[in-house]
Specification:
Layout: H1 11-42, H2 65-91, E1 95-98, E2 103-110, E3 113-120, E4 128-131, E5 140-141
Antiparallel strand pairs: 1-2, 2-3, 3-4, 4-5
Helix pairs in contact: 1-2
Length: 149
């Protein structure tokens, strides 16, 4: 396979990958929630989350500066974990669509057409697909092929 060639994943292979993919996606969803929670708790009335930096000097009289630094360090660690999890999913050839909702796409081809096999964290198997230029809301059951639409 050339460096730019996309890895296509069949339905059987996608379902065989689900035990690993579901663990990674569950961790991504949890990590995404934690990052959001920590960012919200770092924001105060005078600063936005973009203004907060790890190791940034806070006011000397701030009684919560040690706690804030600890949350900032936790946030950076969680962001790094999230990046590693996304990279792991990408190495499997799986595309993350919605980190909080746990939606992923498996690049596939059905009857010569480029599609995404679509799976959500709460589902027991890969059972849906949609054209690549469509989103989650357009997905169809796998029993409905592109040729029959």
């Amino acid at each position: 396979m050339s460096p730019t060639a996309e890895k296509l994943i069949g339905i059987g292979q996608a379902n065989a990958m689900l035990p690993l993919v579901s663990r990674i996606v569950a961790d991504i969803a949890e990590s995404t929630r934690l990052v959001g929670w920590r960012q919200e708790h770092l924001i105060d009335d005078s600063r936005s989350d973009e203004d907060v930096g790890v190791g940034e000097d806070l006011h000397a009289d701030d009684p919560y500066s040690d706690e804030r630094r600890a949350v900032e360090l936790d946030l950076e660690r969680e962001r790094a974990r999230l990046t590693a999890l996304r990279d792991e999913l990408h190495q499997l050839g799986v595309e993350l669509d919605d980190p909080l909702g746990g939606v992923v796409h498996f690049p596939a081809e059905v009857e010569g057409l480029a599609v995404h096999l679509c799976w959500k964290l709460s589902e027991p198997e890969v059972g849906f697909w949609h054209y690549r230029d469509e989103g989650f809301e357009s997905r169809r059951k796998l029993s409905v092929s592109p040729a029959s639409n």
